[in-house]
Amino acid sequence: MSALSRHRALTAIWGSPRGWRGTVSSVNHSDIGRRFILAAFAFFAIGGVLAMLIRAQLATPGSAFVGPEIYNQLFTMHGSIMMFLFAIPMFEGLALYLLPKMLGSRDMAFPRLSAYGWWCYVFGGSILIAALALGVAPDSGWFMYTPLSSKAYTPGINADVWLLGITFVEISAVSAAIEITVSILRLRAPGMRLDRMPLLAWYLLVTALMMVVAFPPLILGSILLEVERAFGWPFFDPLRGGSPLLWQHLFWLFGHPEVYIIFLPAAGVVSTVLPVMARTRILGYGWIVAALLALAFLSFGLWVHHMFTTGIPHMALGFFSAASALVAVPTALQIFAWIGTLWKGRPELKLPMLYLLGFFVIFVLGGLTGVMLAMVPFDWQAHDTHFVVAHLHYVLVGGFVFPMLAGAYYWLPHFTGRARIPLLGEAAFWLILIGFNLTFFLMHLTGLLGMPRRIYTYPSDMGWTWLNLLSSVGSFIMAFGFAMFAVDVALQIFLSRRARRNPWGAHTLEWAMPLPAPAYNFASQPRVADGEPLAADPDLPLRLARGEGYLAEIRHGWRETMAVDVTTGAVDHVIILPGNTRLPIITALATGCFFLALLFGFYWLAPLPLVAVTVLGWRWAWTLGWREEIGPVPIGAGETALTHREAAGAPGWWGSVFLLVADGTLLGSLLFGYAFLWVVAPNWPPPELIAAGLPQGAVAALAALAGTVLTRLAASAGVAGNNAASSRWASLAVGAQAVVIAALLWLGLAELPAPTGHAYAASSWAMIAYGVLHAFIALLCAAFIRARIASGHIRKGRVLETSVAQLFGDYAGLATWLILACVLAPLVLA
Amino acid sequence: MMLLARASAGLIFWAFGFSVLYGLHGIGCAYGWPSTEVGGGNLFRWVMVASWLLLCAGGAALIWLAKAAPSGLERRLSLTSAVVGCAATFVTGLPVAVTSACV
Ligand code: HEM
Ligand SMILES: [Cu+2]
């Protein structure tokens, strides 16, 4: 087959239809990645306009430009948009677009999940922007502290917009995290060992894993606060045993790791672009990976540094202050690795390099003010002043926006296939750099002069007038710079001349393809023997296009890509990915209806979209797989491999594992909340504790155990080819999970006090609800197994579906036991 | 996967120790351990300092174990993770010895 006819055949398989059909049904990672990037940039522009309005208001004392109500919406939406609708989705887009290309793969592990995440993001983001246009946007700050965000002080729907809209967007973040993790671990080119992976993949792996455990606390917090606002369950109301500090803990337990989640992908871009600009290899690959891991873990022990002024005892503050200072060490190690790389190489001052230099200066300053703020006595002075605003913009703009701009210029030829128009980009850089420093450096000073953040105006005799005016001037200079950047990119997309292949002379695999990238990435997948494949083998692109790699053969219209062993990168099996479908957009619409029903208070309507999501989820799983036996298939070079449904450890199984890790973190946060309220909140012990309920508890516990064991039996019988037995065990497992649900509800209704009376009852009820939900999921899994045996999809040797059902069965059992222990503890201990 | 597990072991140990200290601090303050006199000090200080030292010893043991990892990136990551875990346990736990207890 000639290279051209292979290109045509592969494009027919991997591409998407033209027009709106393609728009709603494409699941291709390049499409979805590009959309994420464009949308994130649009949100960045909206957030930027809000920032200019803020600066216009603060430019002069006693300004009458906007009043306090609008001002509160402005800064809340600015922060929320930049964190949730710009930074996270921007890096997700970059990861979706680039990862498979850098890893030598043809797509991500769960293409439909990417598409679902994309639609959730657009719909959730639209809810927030619509609220802004209608003047009912959130207005309690991007961290939504209670009681300001509680019903009493925010009676309107503003806070609900935030809680529901952001949670909706969060679904897309968690999906992306799972997707990125599994893709990096399994979907690489054969031979790409972990220690040959491009550094960006390490950064994204660590970031994605952090997201899997960082987002659940915020999702939980948002659910609890929404339930408090909607139904009066008093999790955060101190009069009824709740605690506003619980919100702060849950928020920052997410919020601090979040800032590293934003920084690390950008640092990954630095580690990728810098060595190319310096025409050398990165210095200290292994040390950088070690520093990354240290950063990832340590960043989960810092969150209380946002709460230094809340009256927490000194010893506890000490733990977090020490950890905050410590986290500067691995960060500094990376900086030294970058400096060393520059030193070793022959750097060229091209545009991406300019942005990297800007990043160095700004980010280092931000890190230093961070360490200052991490010292408790200093923080008591500077907290809630513009000094913090300066710090956070130095680290976020310096640590995210600058590297991303470097990355934008570096990879734009890859997206567009065109070269840049000279000079416009340099001008934009200088405007952004000068504007940024003028705006934010002065805020250190206003902050130290005592100017609080989030005030909508100030009197002229405070001595802040000139500094504020200059800040505002700076912000407009910076905005011009960004506008110029946008123009530059638009010119490059539409007008510029064609770029050479691999214009920077880089050595990673994303440059081993024609530009702009074809839908299938690689006509055949490479075998990788070096960390910089194109350096070791400059002719690789040609040979891949000629079909001299893996999976060059085209069969049955399948979207095929290789799965490898996690550590060694040895060939493991062939993954057959699902093609274009409208399921993701339909499921996202149903999910959106659920959130809208809650937002408008139509609680009686909310179950309807939930049922729809469940049905769609079933269909989602149902449409995969096939009845026929396939066996080993040839993959090229005389080798053969099994397809993923017949091999152990397929991506679906790994994805379920990480989903359950996220889910388990949510449960862990809930249990933490329960213990926290018990130990710290005022107005405890509650007026009324659980008084009986051991029988119901015993029934639930036994049924949960039975459910787990029966699902396992059904799974092993199914894989052994014993259909009748498997089907019988699965039916029994369905019954057992139904008993769990009934017993848990019975326990709650008969023995627990009403959830609105006290945070104790509310948190016990929250745990019961969690248990019921998971028993129901396990029930669905068991029912699915039964149905798939009947339909002939599960048969001897097909491990995937049964092993996933078993995971969910095991998890439901474990969760029920934990929950029962916590709910019944007061009874047993009394 | 073993590589990732080894590479995280020391840091997971730090996270565990950090949670133990923070949790014990909350519980000890809630149940009034600082006002229980034991052996010339108070119960709170004894428990906190003893747990901290035990954790540091555990971290040191992990370093010793990490030396057995397969060579290459895996040994590098296991060792640094263990060293960082142990050092971080020492530094972040230091306040148990020097700050006031529950105010
Ligand atoms: C050397 C490392 C760092 C240290 C020690 C540090 C320390 C701190 C401290 C103590 C605060 C709280 C100030 C207060 O509210 O009183 C803070 C705020 C903040 N930091 Fe950092 N930081 C560091 C790096 C970063 C990085 C890398 C980012 C993001 C890329 C970041 C983003 C933020 C943000 C967004 C806030 C403000 C949150 C808010 O109150 O709205 N920090 N930092
Ligand atoms: Cu922080």
Automatic annotation (TrEMBL), chain A:
Instruction: Name the residues that span the membrane.
Output: 36-54, 74-98, 118-137, 161-187, 199-225, 245-270, 282-304, 316-342, 354-376, 388-411, 423-446, 466-491, 583-604, 653-677, 729-747, 767-787, 808-829
Keyword entries, A-Z: Cell membrane, Copper, Electron transport, Heme, Iron, Membrane, Metal-binding, Respiratory chain, Translocase, Transmembrane, Transmembrane helix, Transport
Tell me if DNA-binding is a UniProt keyword of this record.
no
Residues folding into a coiled coil are none
Q: Does the keyword Heme apply?
A: yes
Provide the Cytochrome oxidase subunit I profile domain boundaries: 8-529
Q: What is the topology of this protein in the membrane according to its UniProt annotation?
A: Multi-pass membrane protein
InterPro entries in the cross-refs = Cyt_c_oxase-like_su1_dom, Cyt_c_oxase-like_su1_sf, Cyt_C_Oxase_1, Cyt_c_Oxase_su1_BS, Cyt_c_oxidase_su1_bac, Cyt_c_oxidase_su3-like_sf, Cyt_c_oxidase_su3_a-hlx
Which reactions is this enzyme annotated as catalysing? 4 Fe(II)-[cytochrome c] + O2 + 8 H(+)(in) = 4 Fe(III)-[cytochrome c] + 2 H2O + 4 H(+)(out)
Q: Which Pfam families does this UniProt record tie to the protein?
A: COX1
Q: In which pathway does it act?
A: Energy metabolism; oxidative phosphorylation
Family the UniProt entry places it in: Belongs to the heme-copper respiratory oxidase family.
- Protein name stated in the entry: cytochrome-c oxidase
**Lineage, highest ranks first:** Bacteria, Pseudomonadati, Pseudomonadota, Alphaproteobacteria, Acetobacterales
Originating gene: ctaD
TrEMBL record, chain B:
Q: Which UniProt keywords apply?
A: Membrane, Transmembrane, Transmembrane helix
Q: Is Membrane a UniProt keyword of this protein?
A: yes
Annotated transmembrane regions? 12-33, 45-65, 77-98
This chain belongs to which protein, by name?
A: Uncharacterized protein
